[in-house]
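Discussion board: Methods & Data

I've been asked by a reviewer to show the raw model output for two of the constructs in my manuscript, not just the figures. I'm not sure how much to include, so I'm pasting the format here to get opinions. Each protein appears as its amino acid sequence followed by a line of discrete structure tokens. Is this the kind of thing reviewers expect to see in a supplement, or should I convert it first? Here is construct A:
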Amino acid sequence: MLIFTVLKKRIMQFLEGTKLYSILTGTCPVCHKGKMYVEPNPYKFSKALKMHERCSHCNTKFKIEPSFFYGAMYVSYAVGVAIAVASFIIAYFFIGLDRDYTFLVIIATLVLMLPLILRVSRNIWINLFMKYDPNKAKG
């Protein structure tokens, strides 16, 4: 477990300053310091998509305009399809399940991963419109 924690920390240090870091960690796309979500656990459904209005570190406004995150629905669809295809390949080709059980595996995977898909989709969407600023990360 300790090796996994150290490896994760090293990978995140390597990715810091990239869009991928902000997408995976749910941090501000501008400074990578402030958290975007009020609740860190996406499986607390009542607060899963509740976001801070602004970054606590650099004061960047997360909701650029009203209904800004409606565009994340398109990203969510693409992420869901990618996960469904990956589930199919693993269940059908690697595990060797028949089509009926593979279908159930896809459904179960999508249902279990829904909160993560929603958050990652929002993270990808906001990172399309904002970029990392090393000066704001320091200040």
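Construct B, same format:
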Amino acid sequence: MKRLWKWLRDKLIIIIRIDSTPAKIAAGVGVGAFIAMFPITGFQFLTGLLLSFIFRVNRIAVVLTTQLVCNPLTMSFLFFLDYKVGEKVLGYDSSVTLDALKLLIRQSNFGNFFAVLASVAKPLYLGAAIMAPCIGIAAFALSYFLIKTFKRRI
């Protein structure tokens, strides 16, 4: 557990010490958090870099935040949260738990892959589309405040 906290602290220190304006760093953190909420594992890094060029935000902040928010420890929780939000918006009434969703994904094979994908994808991506802007804006606001505070001390 100590290694995890040390890793997290080191990444946050790297973000705070980036040589850029607090607004550009915080915008990078917001974009990174936004991208991390989408279940596009494997493409989050590339999508984050592309958006950092489009919006002219700090690329290092985008990449590090994407890595911090969506990693193997948090990925299943984030995607489950996305799924549950999408499910509520669509009015689905299922009793899918995190364990049941993991089992469904584990039991999928080439023959039933598209059936499993169809039942999960709609609420998952709708939930992600709702949660991503909320998380991105919250990450921007929090990081802007923290970066501005810590840059004054350095």
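Answer (T.O., handling editor elsewhere):
This is acceptable in a supplement if you add a one-line summary per construct. For B, something like: The longest helix spans residues 113-153.
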